[in-house]
């Protein structure tokens, strides 16, 4: 486990927490489908693509299965497992549609977000599925861009556990050129090239300049998650970066990697501390940060800044690369400056980008004493951040 907690006594809480989460995700899609041999191929591929665990982790979900014949047609296309994962993830909806809901769609048509959309790999709105009630009680399924043609129809309900999981049968795989587009196998991924092309060129340069990129690349086969700050924030951060010692720079870069694979779904279901590649076994080099979820936002909180995941460059087990909107500053290298209350409700930044690339979105100003002055509805609060870890432990 990558979770590192402040105090070992808290591990009891962790155990309790794990016990509760195990109970709460009560469904097991593999088990549900195992009762129906005609879906055995679909079931096998849910496991092979690791979508099964993603489905089990979700609280509200609809799985559109196809029978072995329809899976045979799909497999005849000889797609890589990574492409198959995209195709199948288009058949998992992040919402609950039992037979009843399908036949009672408001205005007879709706768009629903799929796990393909959630991976961030779907271009534009290609990760949405259009469900439409048609003549004769038929329910059609197609991608959002469909020319009025529905490639797939509702056949029957397989199992419904309202409103946790609905497993239904569709006549065919939903045709989607976007989902069927070939995906490079992770081993073929050029991490530096990928980052450079997708908005994280400056961060990639820093990795190369320090030759730290090798440490990232070495982990790619066994599991790696990278959070790369976008170019603008890296550029603004450069003066601070150059101020660090060589070792400090290396630790800062390693702080942006986790030596393990975490899909967005896994990050969403996580709340707690996580070790990074900069973490060493020792007393004062924890270099961890905490992951917090509010709604659909995944936030990374160091004691100095809170960054948000703003996009996915790659999410193919065993590698995930996400874009973040701030440089992660470990408290081992920078003074703790802000407490991270959940104040997203305070509205957008009032142009507080002061050139450090680390200004918080919430109009906070920092002083130099490790304290923070925050303007809340016109009143001033001064908060001192000493053992923030205890709050989130
Ligand atoms: C649905 O999920 C909730 C928790 O997410 C669980 O408490 C409940 O028992 C589940 N319902 C059924 C019918 O399994
Ligand atoms: C779900 O069921 C499958 C098949 O019976 C089993 O191998 C797997 O361990 C189960 N998963 C969980 C999380 O219980
Ligand atoms: C779904 O597709 C049909 C056919 O192209 C279209 O008429 C309908 O407006 C679409 N529904 C939504 C919600 O976009
Ligand atoms: C660089 O370090 C010096 C000395 O600690 C400090 O005064 C200065 O503000 C730092 N510059 C930046 C950009 O952080």
From TrEMBL:
PROSITE patterns found in the cross-reference section: FAS1
Residue span(s) of domain FAS1: 26-155, 187-328
Polar residues compositional bias, start-end: 338-347
Cited Gene3D superfamilies: FAS1 domain
Keyword Glycosyltransferase tagged: no
Compositionally skewed regions (Acidic residues) per UniProt: 355-364
Membrane topology: Lipid-anchor; GPI-anchor
GO cellular component term of the entry, any: side of membrane
Stored Pfam families: Fasciclin
Signal peptide extent: 1-26
Keyword Glycosyltransferase appears in the UniProt entry: no
InterPro entries: FAS1_dom_sf (IPR036378), FAS1_domain (IPR000782), Plant_FLA (IPR033254)
Location within or outside the cell: Cell membrane
Keyword annotations: Cell membrane, Glycoprotein, GPI-anchor, Lipoprotein, Membrane, Proteoglycan, Repeat, Signal
Function: May be a cell surface adhesion protein.
Family the entry assigns: Belongs to the fasciclin-like AGP family.
Name recorded for this polypeptide: FAS1 domain-containing protein
Organism of origin: Solanum commersonii (Commerson's wild potato)
């Amino acid at each position: 486990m990558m979770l590192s907690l402040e105090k070992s006594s808290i591990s009891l809480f962790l155990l309790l927490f794990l016990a509760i989460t195990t109970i709460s995700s009560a469904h097991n899609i593999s088990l549900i489908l195992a009762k129906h041999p005609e879906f055995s191929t679909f079931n096998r591929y849910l496991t092979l693509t690791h979508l099964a665990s993603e489905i089990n982790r979700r609280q509200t979900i609809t799985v559109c299965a196809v029978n072995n014949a329809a899976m045979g047609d799909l497999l005849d296309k000889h797609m890589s497992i990574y492409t198959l994962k995209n195709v199948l993830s288009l058949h998992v909806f992040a919402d609950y549609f039992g037979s009843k809901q399908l036949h009672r769609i408001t205005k007879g048509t709706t768009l629903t977000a799929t796990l393909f959309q959630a991976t961030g790999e779907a271009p534009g709105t290609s990760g949405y599925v259009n469900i439409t009630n048609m003549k004769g009680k038929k329910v059609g399924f197609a991608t959002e861009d469909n020319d009025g043609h529905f490639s797939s129809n509702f056949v029957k309900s397989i199992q419904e556990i309202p409103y946790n999981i609905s497993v239904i049968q569709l006549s065919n795989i939903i045709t989607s050129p976007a989902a069927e587009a070939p995906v490079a196998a992770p081993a073929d991924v050029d991490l530096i090239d990928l980052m450079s092309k997708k908005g994280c060129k400056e961060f990639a340069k820093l990795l190369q300049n320090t030759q730290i990129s090798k440490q990232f690349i070495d982990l790619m086969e066994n599991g790696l998650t990278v959070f790369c700050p976008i170019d603008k924030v890296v550029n603004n951060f450069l003066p601070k970066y150059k101020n660090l010692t060589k070792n400090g720079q290396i630790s800062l870069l390693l702080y942006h990697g986790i030596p393990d694979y975490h899909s967005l779904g896994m990050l969403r279901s996580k709340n707690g501390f996580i070790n990074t590649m900069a973490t060493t076994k020792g007393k004062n080099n924890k270099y961890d940060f905490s992951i917090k979820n509010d709604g659909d936002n995944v936030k990374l909180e160091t004691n100095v800044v809170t960054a948000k995941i703003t996009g996915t460059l790659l999410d193919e087990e065993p590698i995930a690369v996400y874009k973040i909107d701030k440089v992660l500053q470990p408290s081992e290298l920078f003074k703790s400056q802000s407490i991270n209350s959940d104040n997203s409700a305070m509205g957008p930044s009032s142009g507080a980008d002061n050139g450090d690339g680390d200004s918080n979105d919430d109009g906070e100003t920092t002083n130099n004493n490790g304290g923070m002055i925050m303007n809340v509805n016109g009143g001033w609060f001064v908060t001192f951040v000493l053992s923030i870890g205890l709050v989130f432990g």
